[in-house]
């Protein structure tokens, strides 16, 4: 029973992290699509475009979409982010 409860808790936590961290930028990175990434940041509010590509807050943790793209091998997305920032 305790093992089942632990697995249930972990699954709920992971679901929450995925749902809260599912920004349009992160979805584009997970698909590794430069075109989707450009569309995603095109709707960013003025002055927030770079922040959308460099920082995502998930609960109390923050993650860099650029670093995530590099670490997961989404190099097309990483290239698009760097080009956009420059």
Structure notes:
The chain has helices spanning 2-20, 24-31, 34-42, 49-54, 65-71, 75-85; strands at 56-58, 61-63. The longest helix is centred in the first third of the chain and has 19 residues, at 2-20. By secondary structure, the protein is mainly alpha-helical. The model has no long low-confidence stretch (mean pLDDT 84).
Give me the secondary-structure topology.
Blueprint: H1 2-20, H2 24-31, H3 34-42, H4 49-54, E1 56-58, E2 61-63, H5 65-71, H6 75-85
Antiparallel strand pairs: 1-2
Helix pairs in contact: 2-3, 5-6
Briefly say what this structure is.
With 86 residues, the chain is mostly helical.
CA(first)-CA(last) distance: 54 Å
Helix and strand content put the structural class at: mainly alpha
Instruction: Assign an overall shape.
Output: elongated
Residue-averaged pLDDT? 84
Number of helices: 6
What is the makeup of the main sheet? 2 strands, antiparallel
Give the low-confidence spans. none
* Rg for CA atoms: 15 Å
**Assembly status:** single chain
Placed side by side, the strands forming the largest sheet appear as: 1-2
Strand content: 5-15%
Distinctive features:
elongated; mainly alpha; two-stranded antiparallel sheet; 86 residues
